[in-house]
Amino acid sequence: MAHTTHRIDLGTRCSHVALLGIILGLGASALAQGDATATSEQTVTLESMKAQAKAKGWTFTVDDTPAFRQELWKIKGVDGVQNWRKDADFDNAPPRGGDLPSTYDWRNVNGVNFMTDVRSQGGCGSCWAFALYGSLESNIMIKDEQEVDLSEQWLVSCCGLGGCSGQWPGYAANFLKASFSFVDECGDSGAVMESDFPYLASDDFCGCPYDHPYTIENWAFIGPEWGTPSDDQLKQAILDHGPITVCVTTSGSFSAYSGGIFNDHNPDPITHAVVLVGWDDDQGSNGVWFMRNSWGDWWGEDGGYMRIEYGCSNIGYNALYLDYEGSGDADGTLHVPSEYATIQAAIDAATTGQEVLVAPGRYRGEGTTLINFSAKAITVRSSGGADATILDGEDERPVIELLTSEGSGTVIDGFTITHGYSPMGGGLRVNGTPMIRNCVLRDNHAQSIGGGLASSHPSGPVLENVRFCHNSAGTFGTAHCFGSWVDGGGVEQDDWCSCPGDTNGDGLTNVNDLLAVIGAWGGDDPTADFDFDGTIGVDDLLAVIAGWGSCP
Fold first, then answer.
1. Does residue 164 carry a catalytic annotation?
2. Cβ distance 515 to 550 under 8 Å?
3. Judging by beta carbons within 10 Å of its beta carbon (0-12, 13-18, 19+), is residue 124 exposed, middle or buried?
4. Could you tell me how far CA 504 lies from the centroid of its own chain?
5. Catalytic residue, candidates 127, 247, 439, 499
6. What is the DSSP string of 440-472?
7. pLDDT tens sequence for the chain (552 residues)
8. One of 263, 293, 314, 318 is an active-site residue; which one?
9. Is the pTM of this model over 0.70?
10. Are strands 467-469 and 453-455 parallel, antiparallel or unpaired?
11. Which H/E stretch holds residue 327?
12. From the candidates 3, 212, 241, 272, which is the catalytic residue?
């Protein structure tokens, strides 16, 4: 859980330390960039590696990177105390029942990136600190919806952990715990903000005390006490606990990596700590991990990442996850997709009165319906609102079913409900009086009645700020809503999208709207996404042309 302490006045001394840190941090950044060109010896080595790439069938490219020039692969960043397994928890549980997804990536969960920017450790063997914080910062984004930058320098300078000479990430994780079982030089524990102690890339003076706004409840190694976890154990941990910290063996080809799938296996002892953010079973010879490094965003591909084959260079050794509960868990909030991969899984786990908080993204499903509340008096709310949180029935199934007499204690708040399909009630099928608010029902279809919403309850659901758009029905019409409760008034059934092609709401479809669609091309701006498929493209351009002129 989040753990906040009283802010201490650090005074002039610590202000000077912070200023010094900023200055030296800029120097560390320059160091990380390295010289503009490689030495003649390094150039020869690089050309030799390119020849090896052809001879050995490497599926990745190598280039003159700052990491290669600084020979960062020779810095052993994982080292330290010999009893690092002492008192540690080992989670050797097998994966839960059901098939794991063939691909998963915390950089793109329903269109949302839960990773902070890639950092650079410079010429200091502090990868262990960056690998821990790569996991913790992501967990804070997942649980608290806040992007933070934590101070690796505090771990390097204040906790007696070996600094730039290296440390085992698991032993260092103890200093993040809320229990105060491991404390820094001033008797405190928990992560410090980067702004309070900027990164110096050196073993420097601590200068504590500092605020410690983030702590973890615990941490655990993944898999058996000795050995590397199975691929499925690593995948399950990534799903359940967010990006995880692992170790790997580095080499010259590793440091010169510039893109592709890394497959130069090195069986030597591990040297480096990194973060696994996801996987893809369909890439490489047998699947790849998406790995985040700490050698700056100019290294690798996608701004500091690598695709590395399963089992290559001891990837996954010493794997651990952090148990960060998040500030929302104190009131029983269930988070999607962090704690639960799907909205339905969170609803199934929820109890009366709890809230399921859904991060922005487009959610799809399988089976007969996307979401079924099964009479639970809970709130399902999006954190980003209807414009950013889409429940998509894919024209195959109803989106939401509330058919077991759900009452006013059941609340749906802040979603776009779209592309639902059913004989009756394509978007919503209701038999009770739940609260539905701040939602958009659009592009749903029913074979007979109630394309957007159908209810058999005489009082019907309670609608608050619910808008209807482009819903359709077959035999009896009633495109948006159907039910005896509709006739009682209070339901606004005008088509909210009565002016297709109007991006700015001025009541005209003209060249300005055409330019707006072209400017948003390939993106997902909802104001220009007239067919609501999640991408601005040709169909949206045609919608502007078809609606040219004044709106009806």
1. no
2. no
3. buried
4. 31
5. 127
6. EEES-EEEEE-SSEEE-SSS--EEES-EEES-E
7. 343 332 223 232 333 333 334 333 333 433 344 445 778 888 898 999 999 988 999 999 999 888 888 888 888 888 765 666 666 788 887 776 557 888 999 998 878 899 999 999 999 999 999 999 999 999 998 888 789 999 999 999 999 988 999 898 988 999 999 888 889 999 999 999 999 999 999 999 999 999 999 999 899 999 887 778 999 999 989 988 899 999 999 999 999 999 999 999 999 999 999 999 999 999 999 999 999 999 999 999 999 999 999 999 999 999 999 988 776 544 578 888 877 888 998 999 888 888 998 988 889 887 788 899 988 999 999 987 887 789 999 999 999 999 888 888 899 999 999 999 998 888 999 988 899 988 888 889 998 888 889 888 888 888 887 888 888 888 655 677 766 555 444 454 556 666 767 777 677 888 888 898 898 888 766 667 766 666 788 888 888 888 787 765
8. 293
9. no
10. unpaired
11. none
12. 272
The secondary structure of 354-383, three-state, reads CEEEECCEEECCCCCCCEECCCCCCEEEEC
DSSP per-residue string spanning 100-164: PPSEEETT-BTTB---PPP-B-TTSS-HHHHHHHHHHHHHHHHHH-----B-HHHHHHHS-S-GG
Instruction: At 393, list the tokens.
Output: 């029935």
Burial level of 51, CB count in 10 A (0-12/13-18/19+)?
A: exposed
293 is catalytic: yes
